[in-house]
Automatic annotation (TrEMBL):
<protein>
    <submittedName>
        <fullName>SDR family oxidoreductase</fullName>
    </submittedName>
</protein>
<dbReference type="GO" id="GO:0016616">
    <property type="term" value="F:oxidoreductase activity, acting on the CH-OH group of donors, NAD or NADP as acceptor"/>
</dbReference>
<comment type="similarity">
    <text>Belongs to the short-chain dehydrogenases/reductases (SDR) family.</text>
</comment>
<dbReference type="InterPro" id="IPR002347">
    <property type="entry name" value="SDR_fam"/>
</dbReference>
<dbReference type="GO" id="GO:0030497">
    <property type="term" value="P:fatty acid elongation"/>
</dbReference>
<dbReference type="InterPro" id="IPR036291">
    <property type="entry name" value="NAD(P)-bd_dom_sf"/>
</dbReference>
<dbReference type="InterPro" id="IPR057326">
    <property type="entry name" value="KR_dom"/>
</dbReference>
<keyword id="KW-0560">Oxidoreductase</keyword>
<feature type="domain" description="Ketoreductase">
    <location>
        <begin position="6"/>
        <end position="184"/>
    </location>
</feature>
<dbReference type="InterPro" id="IPR020904">
    <property type="entry name" value="Sc_DH/Rdtase_CS"/>
</dbReference>
<dbReference type="Pfam" id="PF13561">
    <property type="entry name" value="adh_short_C2"/>
</dbReference>
Amino acid sequence: MSGRKALVMGAGGLGAACAKGLAQAGASVTVADVDAARLKELQADPHLGGAGIGVIRADLAGAAACEAAVTSAAAELGGLDVLVHAVGVNDRRPVVDTPDEVWDRIVTLNLSTAFWAGRAAGRLMREAGRGSMVFFSSVSSQLAHPHHGPYAASKGGLDQLVKVMAREWAADRVTVNAVAPGYTETELTRDYLARPGMREEMTRLVPAGRLGTPEDVVGAVLFLLSRRACFITGQVLYVDGGRTLV
Ligand SMILES: NC(=O)c1ccc[n+]([C@@H]2O[C@H](COP(=O)([O-])OP(=O)(O)OC[C@H]3O[C@@H](n4cnc5c(N)ncnc54)[C@H](O)[C@@H]3O)[C@@H](O)[C@H]2O)c1
């Protein structure tokens, strides 16, 4: 990753782990998120190895904001070789109890931000004739978890968006892939896993016998972004301890 210029969208559990992994591997990294406290915490993280990262505080729930984040990251870094999209939300309810605002929020943050950021980064990378992107899908794109209507739909849509962007930009040497984690311990799953019996139930479904950690995805993300993966595009790599085998 030495010399590569990377924008990570999302400073949550998975985004922060990827930002640290990229910085430790020698990339120059800028991270965008709405949460100023998370960005500050990430900047102060000793695991960055003194490399330091740039931050952009922005509510990314709109096309203009996503495009501005991509443009200012590219200006700050002096180009853009890598995009990691790790923004996402969930709200678990039965479909019949899901109001429009919940549907809109989940689809906007999980899927539309990927489209807006991917499109903006794709324009820059195609022009440069190189680049790699990784988006966060989920086992929910494949499995029909109850109470995950909008979330599952957003991740299924993301998988298809990744494939089409990959196909359109392959000739420009721009790769587009996704990683799909199983249940991983972050802010996104904390409350759900804290419900009585939930952690045990979720863990029982994983052949590897444990839930994921943010660090579990970093190797897969760095590989897909690396030159060693330059002929891999349009793929969804499950990082789930075997969850999708059950
Ligand atoms: N944690 C899991 O179990 C898991 C499993 C599969 C897929 N994923 C996916 O991985 C991605 C990252 O998830 P995570 O576990 O790190 O979640 P997280 O909640 O820890 O992080 C999500 C980040 O998105 C940011 N965000 C939310 N709304 C925003 C907005 N309007 N503008 C800018 N930033 C905003 C939050 O501030 C947060 O930092 C998501 O797409 C999620 O769906 C997570």
